[in-house]
Amino acid sequence: MDKTYQPEQIESRWYERWEADNRFAPSGEGMPYAIMIPPPNVTGSLHMGHAFQDTIMDTLIRWRRMQGHNTLWQVGTDHAGIATQMLVERKIAAEEGKTRFDLGREAFIDRVWEWKQESGGHITRQLRRMGASVDWSRERFTMDDGFYRAVQEVFVRLFEEDLIYRGKRLVNWDPTLHTAISDLEVENRDQQGHFWHFRYPLADGVTTDAGKEYLVVATTRPETLLGDTGVAVNPEDPRYASLVGKFVELPLVGRRIPVVADEHADMEKGSGCVKITPAHDFNDYEVGRRQDLPLINVFTQDAAILARAEAFDIQGRPLPDIDPTLPEAYAGLDRFEARQRIVADMEAAGLLEQVETVSNTLPYGDRSGDVIEPLLTDQWFVAVESLARPAIEAVETGEIQFVPKNYENMYFAWMRDLQDWCISRQLWWGHRIPAWYDNDGNVYVARSEAEAREKHDLPAEVALTQDEDVLDTWFSSGLWTFGTLGWPEQTPELATFHPSSVLVTGFDIIFFWVARMIMLTGKFMGEVPFKQVYVHGLVRDGQGQKMSKSKGNVLDPIDLIDGIDLETLVQKRTGSLMQPQKAQAIEKATRSEFPEGIEPHGTDALRFTFLSQATTGRDIKFDMGRLEGYRNFCNKLWNASRYVLMNAEGEDTGLGSEPVELSLADRWIVSRLQQTESQVTKALEEFRFDHASQALYDFVWNEYCDWYLELSKPVLWDEAASAEAKRGTRRTLVRVLEAILRLAHPMMPFITEEIWQRVAPLAGTRQGEGDSLMVQPWPQADDSRLDESATRDIEWLKGVIVAVRNIRAEMNIAPGKPLEVLLTKGSAEDARRLAANRPFLAKLAKLERVEWLDDPAQAPLSATQLVGEMEVLVPMADLIDKEAELARLAKEIDKQDKLIGGIEKKLGNESFVAKAPAAVVEKERGKLADFEASRRLLVEQRDKIAAL
RNA sequence: AGGACCAUAGCUCAGUUGGUUAGAGCGCCACGUUGACAUCGUGGAGGUCGGCGGUUCAAAUCCGCCUGGUCCUACCA
User: Fold this and answer.
1) How does it assemble (predicted)?
2) How many Å apart are CA A81 and CA A182, to the nearest integer?
3) How far apart are CA A483 and CA A146, in angstroms?
4) Crossing angle, helix A723-744 and helix A664-685, to 10 degrees?
5) Which of A596, A560, A483, A602 is nearest to A12 (CA)?
6) Distance between CA atoms of A221 and A412, rounded to whole angstroms?
7) What is the pLDDT of residues A540-592, one digit of tens each?
8) Strand order in A179-181's β-sheet?
9) Is A549 annotated as a binding residue?
């Protein structure tokens, strides 16, 4: 083995080997355990969130695989409608100066497929780099033929059950992308805005109770005035009671619109009167429905003002009786321009009463960045009510469990207030809606045009055109758990692996995806899509900032693995920015944060870092320091293995029938191993990856390396040690390491496999050349191997060694200087332990001589430390700096006094003694005795030195 | 406005059902190259557990209020 750990070499090699050996496919034996990967965007690239998520899934899958489960990690990618279409549109625009309309639908879609072929392998390659043990043979893409069949089937069946309908509804419209988007794709941003108070003259000579000839309404959106179809007042409002049923004359337009009573109007706010624009505001739409007001749309699809408005009733039927004329002056104006003109015209007409500056929030499309417009359009919807009920129940009954549990509340809150789901998108890239229209506008929903004709008996002369729209991406991803397993066919995989075991996902897509999967899967499979949902937080940068290209704080997981030099990193972060003016600041920050670029750390270290930071339900501030620390941990494991191999390869490791003797240390480390195995297993069961990684780290570094390897040296290197003892220690070294590798493998697959290949033959666990750590049994703790007496003995030994080290440090004695040590005031047990551990003590504490002193009175002047009741003495003679030592002792005594004081106070409290459990009281008494003993020793020592 | 979550060492975080001398890693200080490892070893400094109040014999832990932060939902006519 090389002297230093070099991850890049071993990682790609092992992944290829595993894949070639078909290690990732289900074994076909054991209990099924399945995870469906949240499908990343096919043309996307791996970001920190993916890397984190993939690490968790892979750890679970590898762990369960080793436990003997029949594991399937289903892999695949998503076509990601809007995102991908926009990307290709931009690319074509940049390269050829053409729009998708120049190309036409078919040619454009061909181009998207081309782009998918070109770039679609990127993210899957990166997934491999992360070590993801997904079953590549089953890779799916949401636009595959098979998956499309599932999508069509679901659409058609839902339609046939009246759970899908088409209608003219108010939807979130993106004026840039020209498509409807869901509520969830809308991002609310705080803004400084204006609040205009307008006078709406009352018609027919009516006046208010206060004698005014107008009502005052306030709005942040004056341009929608053109579409007003009413003014609402609160039914309880005495000021306007007499006006309900009367009319106002809509300024600039001249339309007569009624004053209606509706609870939407808040008496406390403004004048108490609200203008109602049902076609351009979601609340007003509801008021319109309640009050039977017409809907008047005044916007084009670009959100510019129409020349002639479009009037509909609440069912979306045209209302020819309403005069659609709009003032010519505004026709074709963009909404924001129209706003200014309308405000100016109102002011000129003396109808502007007041302008307030207010802060409000505006809806933005999270893809386009444009202000979203509520717009009346024809769309397809899923009626969710009947689907939501069982979906809520599945979580209520615990059939699906969220981890951590508090996300269930978030889920319930959303599910109980669910609006019908708009599933049509005015895009080209996606699953085209399986609906056909004849020339009369009749709609036929079927799996194909042929089926539509057959079902509805339509002769060939009847021309049918397919709906232009495609489905919301989340409609298809909602079928992910069963669609990937071959549904609607009843495949063996579907029978075996559905429901899947656990979904690993970010809280940000609980609504987009998780909820919809539960609903659609419940409907079509009659069961839940997964039994548990592990919800993790967002990966943020070291300062807690969201990573984003525009902030220039993005870390690429691959760069953390392979390293990147500063110049390349700067270029990566500042290249092709939307706001190039930020480049300088980003460059500066990057140069100061990574003056040397980023070192390579390897996949295993990155994975271990993610796991160690995977704490429950909170965001992760990615810590470069920990990444380095865990890279060092890999190195530690590497070097410990080198030591073991150096001492075991070519030697007798106790596999044969020769007698074997286990030392105290051997028994101790085996005992501690059992505990570690329990801890790691328990932590994984609870999704506490931080605990699992911590337990492993502790055991490997602080016990196996720091103590056990050191304790093995006296046995292996001492000529006097017996062959049986050497065999026992070698065997323990090798077997414990082999168990460590199995325990660590799900978290750090590469380094463990590499080492295991060398170590396993010595432990007798490798079957042959082709064997892999991936399929070794998961370590199971054997409680019969817990050894408390060995543990106590080793703790004693560690205590004495640490005591001597302490004395060295305090007395400024060179670490290498051989010392003489006396032990005194101990029990027979202490004496026995000394006898049993003499060589270990000598080696680890660098002692020349260690003697038992029966009579404490004969102790020479010494530096002392306490181990239990026993004193550890290092005779100091004239080496002591009197003043310094007295000061140190005084400080120590003071510390003990405080501890003693605290406990005495406690024990002096009658209620404590009376009410606290006896065990607690006993424990306090024991502590008191300890502290007092320490104090006595310190005082004795002080007096001795003071007397010098 | 309502709700959720968070606040522990300079930094990133652990701390199961209340009883610990409050922990880890990184960073910091001192010392150290003998053959696993300087990507290391040994020792150390550093915290009134955000603030106030309450429950309790006992609170980092339970309850209330406050402050600060993150996020979600709603509103913003």
Assistant:
1) Monomer.
2) 13
3) 8
4) 10
5) A602
6) 34
7) 888 888 888 878 888 899 999 999 999 999 999 988 777 788 888 889 888 88
8) A179-181, A164-174, A373-382, A421-422
9) yes
